[in-house]
Amino acid sequence: MKFTLAWLRDHLETTAPVAEIAAALTDLGLEVEEVRDPAERLKAFTLAKVLHAEPHPDADRLRVCRVLTDEGERQIVCGAPNARAGIIAVLAKPGDYVPGIDVTLGVGRIRGVESQGMMCSERELELSDEHEGIIELPSGEVGQRFVDWLAVHDPGRVDPVFHIKITPNRPDALGVRGIARDLAARGLGVLKPETAEPVRGAFPCPIGVRIEPALKAHGCPLFAGRLIRGVRNGPSPQWLQDRLRAIGLRPISALVDVTNYFTYGWNRPLHVFDADRVKGDLRIHPAQGGEEILALDGRTYRLAAGQMAISDDAGPESIAGIMGGEHTGVTEATVNVFLESAYWTPIVVAATGRALRISSDARYRFERGVDPAFTLPGLEMATRMILDLCGGEASEVVIDGAVPDTDRAFRFDPDRVVRLVGMDIPAEEQRRTLEALGFRLEGEMAHPPSWRPDIQGEADLVEEVARIASLTRLRGRPLPRAVPGVPKPVLTPLQRREAAARRSCAALGYNECVTYSFIDEAAARLFGGGGEALRIENPISSEMTHMRPDLLPGLLRAAARNQARGFADLALFEVGPVFHGGEPGEQGLAVSGLLVGRTGPKDVHGESRPVDVFDARADAEAVLAAIGAPAKVQILRNGPGWWHPGRHGQICLGPKKVLGVFGELHPKVLRAMEVKGPAVAFTVWPAEVPLPRVRTATRPALAISDLQAVERDFAFVVDARVEALTLVNAAAGADKALIESVRVFDEFHGGALGEGRKSLAITVRLQPRERTLTEAEIEAVSAAIVEKVAKATGGVLRG
Amino acid sequence: MDGLGELRARYLEAVAGAADEAALEAVRLAALGRKGEISLRMRELGGMDPAARQVAGPALNALKDELEAALKARRAALADAALEERLAAEWLDVTLPARRRPAGTVHPVSQVMEEVTAIFADMGFAVAEGPQIESDWHNFDALNIPPEHPARQEHDTFFMARLPGDDRPPHVLRTHTSPVQIRAMAEHGAPIRVIAPGRVYRMDMDQTHTPMFHQVEGLAIDRDISMAHLKWVLEEFCRAYFEVDHVELRFRASHFPFTEPSAEVDLRCSWEGGQLKVGEGESWMEILGSGMVHPKVLSAAGVDPAEWQGFAFGMGIDRIAMLKYGIPDLRAFFESDLRWLRHYGFAALDMPTLSGGLSR
Question: Could you tell me the pTM of the whole model?
């Protein structure tokens, strides 16, 4: 919303300076985005009188002038044809910045003659595009500031423009009068009284109006209008054009400019029809669907059933409350005009405007709420203005419908304001505030004015009082702890796991990414998603169409982008939500890490090597350990299809409880995601890790033995597809009391073992508890191990 | 006893002259070995008369001790020399790069969420969470934004597709963290104090907007919580978060459908030399929106507005991260450029705490 200071002063008696008004507006909730004061850049310029002008000795079109200024006589070389003795000009002195040519003046020499300043044209001062000659003022004293002269003789030129942001609850502030009312309530001036004397109709209105009954409750409770005949629709007066231009509107003609003036002045959109182009009466009705109308924006709209239109006998002439039709629009040639002032209800206008994608000042206002009680006063005031500007004769008013009853009342409790806001505002001040805003107070009840549709309850009264009193007066008051003393921890176990997993990944060398929750359909499909339930109806780009089923596609895309930038070796991770369905709650927390390329750049220690599955497994296990997963898990195969079928494992507690997965990514997936491998990854689902059954800080007692532990190595030859974990579990089962740990330390394929065979070497650590082991006892355990392993795997001791 | 002086001199000289371990051992054997000269002389003591033995015994023992000490010292000296020589040969170019230790990073969004959590936890706020695919009732209606409210249009909402035959209003990607207010109150009732950090989504993408960003919601409901408490909580938060001794907040009336009264909150700051300084200067920077929870919102969440009241606020996490850490571009947060992650990321052990400070 934009308006000028002079416009505001039409409604508000005030002497407050621009800065004070701007500060008050922002504080009242009418946030100032910009104040543009044209006087600011004209401050330096003063009036000067040309005493004498003679041709330049070396240039035909230049003159050398002697000019009387506030600092005495100066010599100025000037190229303007109207530079002559006797005129009052606007002077820029050396050191002044001239906005229209973007130059800070110096003393110059023009064709050999010194020039101590410049006499400016309107264009040079950015007042207009006029550049035929220099400004020639009809009056003024030498040395007077140009801005002061303008303020008296041409105030429109130096009228400061305010640009404020209006929150959706304040349609009344979409008119200058509403803004003035707020400022008056704040004490920045006095709201000027206003009356709408009805204009007597000289003849019956030849155009009738009728609202289809269905629309009277919702859509168009009230429609009023009248004919004004014999108008001259030329350009509107300069002051009106200046105001409209100042707020960024283009003056069109007096009739149209009047409607805009009311739209911005009183939040009262109006419409003018060329009455000679209206056939028969006007009918306000819901469209049947399929009607077409060429609107004032030059585009043709096809109305859907139920959208509101104003039609005459020839068909739709206006999209009700949104935009008029081109066919009945007024032109310079219009002599008979039908002026419409109607009350359109917000919901219908909003729905139609959205469906037709029309943004107009009228729609913007009607969908937020226009004062229904001002429909007729607005019509009368606008009639008077048209008669003043365009002449003519007004008919009687035609009306259908009535002003809807918006009267309501809410309990007003000054104590509640104090209790809720925490600011001491005397009850008397509170009452004064509400009355200044137009509320009617009756006992304990407050009746909001017709222009405040947003006031819908007691809390709204509190807001009005607090807002006008100024929240800058609010002082902080300590919020006592809910429970005195050291605060309790607040994080849930899952929240702690999330943080622990994140810190673990970073400690393991991964860089955390935050990637978008929506990904492209192709990537989503590769990872088991991409279905309709997770599709976004209105995606912002084709890269962001589906909610991600997994974190890896986002990380792979990130890896591809980094590879394109020349980073071949990457360790990226993300902790975040993944989605398995389109209903609220069908999301879960995942932790994924992705390793691409080598473990590091080539290095002098020869440690760099391609990343492999066991890197991913180590990291997955480290993360699981950090979030409290049990150490004893199963590793199962048959994970989802984006993993290399033979090179991945699911970390499970039983076949249904998957805590995580690690492995090499499927080469096809890498190709599709344009990542150059090798690439391995892991994912962990923190919520799957069971909570400890008993939560206690106490550790179990430490059981250590003073007796020497014994380690024995065994090498077994087994089938190449026998899994190490099977062998280890078999060995460990040989004597659960004595065997403390079994560790694989070597795997060897081929050689003398033959095709399809491998050797697995393990170290078994025996920890006696009561007495030192004898050689015979060790032999007995060893035999048991060999036997168990043979039974479980078919393996034999390597000879 | 004769010749001990000569014996002593000779062996001490031999010890001193031994060039290596073997030579030294030869000297030891010659003197103190089973058939060594000194050993033999000691054996002779048995045949002496007691008076002579009284003299010769101690002298011989003293000589033996002295020689052993000399041998030991020489052995040590030889070992030292040998070690010295080995060490001199064992020169390494220690300017070679070290073995690689992995060093990852934590994203600024995560770091700042932990900072915010640490501060509010101290004031008794728990951390609540909610779904990101949200029902339009939770995202809008329950927050006093009915279907035709103009504020809905201003939210630039992403909608989920509806399967044919499903006539419910489409779910949305939550446009703010405020629906968590509803869920938290519905679940726990009042009194309650929670914050709700997380991802939110709006259909907006340009220089300063991304279609996904992060907010933190705050909610405190009790019998007598006022806007003055809100101001204090936010002042304390800003002071702690920006790690300064003093902050100044300015409340400005504004409008949010779910709070009443509503206020935008500005923070006094200066931007001298392009560097943000909080708590001084002449500029005001808008940092969050807040207000007293609207009675309709309380009712929607099953909390009686006649009995309970309190405040809510919402703040951009990415934004306060940018402000505190001088990160210029929001879009880069989600691009995963390794250079950016390394430069703006935080070390694994940089865990923000109130006891140790939030940032290094």
Answer: 0.86
